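User: Hey, quick favor. My workstation is busy. Could you predict this chain's structure for me?
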Amino acid sequence: MKTLVITLALAVGFYSCQNSGSSESSTSAASTTQVGGQEAVQDDVSDPDVVKVAVGSPDHTTLVTAIKAADLTTSLANAGPFTVFAPTNAAFDALPHGTVESLLQPENKSQLENILQHHVMTSALSADFFQDGQTMGMVDGTNVTFTVNGDEVLVDGAKILGSVKASNGWVHVVDKVIIPQ
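Assistant: No problem, here it is.
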């Protein structure tokens, strides 16, 4: 038993001496490791999630900036399912002057988060699912109402311009920012 303890002590001491010089390199390697959730996974084979759909669209740079500022990237990149009503850059530009800049300030993060959550449902619904007069709940806890007239679908007055199927739901491009009541 005494031999086992001495052997174990020597092995620990030898291992510590061998790694004492490499702790600096392992620390620097750890600091360069990419941090993030599902959104940090590099996958060029699978269908993109709702965040990657938005990131890949030149018409949604303001939305992507807002999602990052509200720390919602990881949540929306997860399995879902999600239905996201994605306002275009032009929709954000139509807000009163200074609104977007104000919402992107750290002190307004909760307000921005609330507005963005008002654009998300926890289900994967294609545009043809929605019916005229239908009311549905959003992630922020409030409801929206759909208006359907022929092929035209509106959610609280924001027209769905197009839709993209994502790996974790649907992204419906809309022409207005949907402000919770």
